[in-house]
Amino acid sequence: MFGDRQPHSACCGARSRRAFLSDFGLGFTGLSLGAMLASDGITRAAEPNSVTPSPLPPLSPSPNHHTPRAKSVIWVFLSGGYSHVETFDPKPALNKYAGMTFDKTPFENPVHSPLQKKRFRSVLAEEINIRDVYPTIYPMQVGWNKYGQSGIEVTDWWPHLSKHVDDLCFVRNMWTTDNDHAAENQIHTGRHRLDEPQPSIGAWANYGLGSFNENLPRFVVLGGPTRSDTRQSIDSYYLGPQYAGVPLALDPKNPLPFGIRNAKQSAEEQQREFELTGQLNGLAAVEYPEDQELRARIKAYELAFRMQAAVPEAIDFSQETQATTEMYGLNNDATKLAGQRLLAARRLVERGVRFVQVFPSAYGVWDSHQKLKENHTRLCATIDLPIAGLIQDLKQRGLLEDVVVVFCTEFGRTPGLERRAGGVDGRDHHPNGFTIWMAGAGLKSGYVHGATDELGYHALEAGHYVTDLHATVLHLLGLDNKRLEIPGRKRLDIDNGQVITDILA
After folding, report:
1. Would you say 344 and 360 are in contact if contact means Cβ atoms under 8 Å apart?
2. Model confidence over 80-114: pLDDT tens digits?
3. Which residue of 123, 196, 214, 345 has the fewest C-beta atoms within 10 A of its own C-beta?
4. Distance in Å from the first CA to the final CA of the chain
5. Separation between Cα atoms, residue 97 and residue 372, nearest integer Å
6. Residue 492: how many CB atoms within 10 A of its CB?
7. Among the CATH numbers 1.10.760, 3.30.920, 2.160.20, 3.40.720, which is that of 72-250+315-503?
């Protein structure tokens, strides 16, 4: 009758009135809640004590730490590691010294730089430890030009986005430590795979902010997580499951599992069912006040009911003009998938979603160990028009004043030619220096911050570890990264990061 709840034993004294009422109320009718929770794999926490449960997350905007510059974030992630030197950080020296080894150039050999050991942290396998030190310089595989009034260099693989460089803010001295694809999690959580997992940047934003729209999740994920071992990229860990990202499918008829009312059930019947479930949930919450997963699931059921109308409407492109759908490339098979996800992101932030994490391409496809020119030519063509369309669309709607767009990957590619497995036309993983860009609320536009060395190897000056990017995004949302603390969970200095103040408008 009580499922996995343990009855209060006589040796523990008289049963509390709260426990008696909740057990009585849950009774046989409470099995419906138990069945739903069991089907979701929910396990309960320890027996409750007299502590009053803390309130559930607010449904209105929370107080900010300081005046926010932005209301929402669209975080675009390209999985696999695009080549920074063949996208947004062209390096003419790679062509000039092509075929030479690092020690034959007039520059300091980057492998001998103190930065190599300071920033490099790999797993123990020797074949991985040596991966990013290929010494033979590989020339750029594409041309480049300066664009806009700002004269920012972008390669020829971005003909549409290059028209918008005066709206973008480039950070060319990013670095991270994991040189394998666990870096996909690191760019989102700030932690190396050998460390304890941490909440993702989207979860922290969700935790720190309230909602503008109680009918939609605060943290939505489109196109991901790309596979089970990248779940960390959207997870919330010790913040509680209610703060994790909610993946949505771009099908208005079935945007999320069990998100549509059964055709055999009337709206009135469903309403009564949810009202009963709500009453039962309330009784369960009284007896188990500290069970975060139970409370999160209760919250999820309530949100799921409200989302049934809101989500299909949010991702229904039939309301968009032909000009808009063409702007995102929805009329072309090559650009359609990325375009759909980015258009959906715009519609979601327009409706008050705080953080939208977009995976416009499949897992690892940018990982060009071989055939870099062929792969990047094709892949850039799938993203170039849709991401340019997003910037143009946000700007013309006035949303670029309220939304921050982040465009990133997990690391760059090596300046040297990858020789493994007889490679002749690719680059390996390169965490030592790479480029991301941002655009929108509170940021300088047509601006380049930082640099890598002449060969594109190391991020110069102090460089920016990935949590500097997190701190900057949270700052723009009105949150002080260092004040987002959980009792009993001490964050490291590197977890907090430093705001990149030079790029703030």
Report:
1. no
2. 999 999 999 999 999 999 999 999 999 999 999 98
3. 196
4. 61
5. 19
6. 12
7. 3.40.720
